[in-house]
Design a protein that fits this description.
By secondary structure, the protein is an alpha/beta fold. Helix 1 packs across helix 2 and helix 2 crosses helix 8. The chain has 11 helices and 10 strands. The protein is 41% helix and 17% strand. The strands form 2 sheets. A 5-stranded parallel β-sheet has the order 3-2-1-4-5, sandwiched between helices. Strands 6, 7, 8, 9 and 10 form a 5-stranded mixed β-sheet that branches. The protein binds xanthosine-5'-monophosphate. Xanthosine-5'-monophosphate binds next to helix 6.
Length: 320
């Protein structure tokens, strides 16, 4: 598959014109739907789809219970301000039921994928009569899935999966030839606010990729609180991505002079251009110390905070 960008000469304006044409040609007089998660890729696709299809596109925000603090309402409101109506679908119970008892990373990813595409979107497509799902798969997602590194939630055709047969609709992927740096340029050119086109990447399966072991609402809440602190403390650091991970095993800590067998949070902060390779950001000691103090005092049950010092490879960016 040829990548449209030629390193620094990627022309976002040209790309937008071509993709708008291609989306309208495919959808014609039909309807399409898309899922906005508030990540860079889905935000860019939502805007591109809106430009191409206007009221022939219906945009949903699937609240899978795995999102960051207040994310569904915040993102829906930002898009409303941009003239794009977003309907929030509460699917929390479905996702947590599907994840119940699963500990294997790839099984957890598959459970999120099936719940999203077959269950939640299958139903929305049937109800709306849409023929197409527009989504923000990018080249890095495809690379890693095809290479067998991890099964990204949004890759099908490249694995020989016929989505029409499997889920009852076709998937359009206007960003599939781009990497993150080019996607950001498209977002800027489309007039998205900087908050949306320049925010750190956030994976489709969301905080489920940051809980080691079984994903439960309680564990997600722990990682969500640590994430809020981390995102607040590192917002000006200019790193590619930063994340908090909840480990499955406990460690002996102490609180008030007594033993406290508590939770462990691992922090990762990455320097990278396109997520294919990445190195840990050399954070100032004071920043790390501050993060450890805030997380152990503000997130219930956490007694230990560690910082990952491994590059990708051998690490990957997310833990799952
Ligand atoms: P990894 O963990 O494979 O991540 O080094 C590379 C980049 O991809 C993001 N990521 C995902 N994005 N669906 C997505 O849309 C997924 O299933 C998924 N898994 C990882 C990750 O956050 C990083 O930016």
């Amino acid at each position: 598959m040829g990548e449209i960008r030629i390193e620094n000469h990627f022309n976002a304006q040209h790309f937008i014109v071509k993709q708008i044409q291609s989306i309208s040609d495919k959808v014609q007089n039909g309807y399409a739907i898309n899922a906005l998660s508030g990540g860079v890729d889905s935000s860019v696709v939502t805007m591109l789809g809106h430009r191409a299809l206007e009221n022939k596109l219906k945009t949903y925000f699937i609240d899978n219970g795995l999102m960051r603090q207040d994310e569904p309402e915040k993102i829906a409101s930002m898009f409303n301000d941009l003239g794009v109506k977003v309907e929030i679908i509460d699917a929390k119970e479905k996702f947590f039921n599907a994840l119940k008892g699963l500990t294997d990373p790839e099984e957890k990813r598959e459970a999120v994928t099936q719940t999203f595409y077959k269950d939640v979107f299958g139903k929305l497509v049937r109800e709306s009569g849409a023929k197409y799902l527009l989504q923000g798969t990018i080249l890095t997602d495809v690379d890693e899935t095809v290479a067998g590194v991890k099964r990204q939630h949004n890759v099908f055709e490249q694995l020989g999966i016929d989505t029409q047969k499997e889920f009852g609709y076709k998937i359009l992927e206007p960003l599939v030839q781009l990497r993150k740096d080019s996607v950001r340029k498209v977002g800027k050119e489309l007039g998205l606010p900087e908050f949306l086109y320049d925010r750190p990447p956030f994976p489709g399966p969301a905080l489920a990729t940051r809980v080691i072991g079984e994903v439960t609402p309680e564990k997600v809440e722990t990682v969500r609180r640590a994430t809020s602190i981390l995102e607040h403390e590192l917002k000006d650091i200019n790193a590619f991505q930063y994340l908090a991970i909840l480990h499955n095993d406990r460690v002996t800590g102490m609180r008030g002079g007594k033993r406290d067998y508590g939770l462990q949070i691992e922090l990762r902060c990455w320097d990278s251009v396109d997520a294919r390779t990445a190195t840990p950001t050399d954070l100032p000691y004071q920043t790390k110390d501050n993060l450890a103090k805030r997380i152990t005092s503000e997130v219930p049950g956490v007694v230990s905070v560690t910082y990952n010092i491994t590059s990708k490879p051998t690490s990957t960016i997310e833990a799952i």
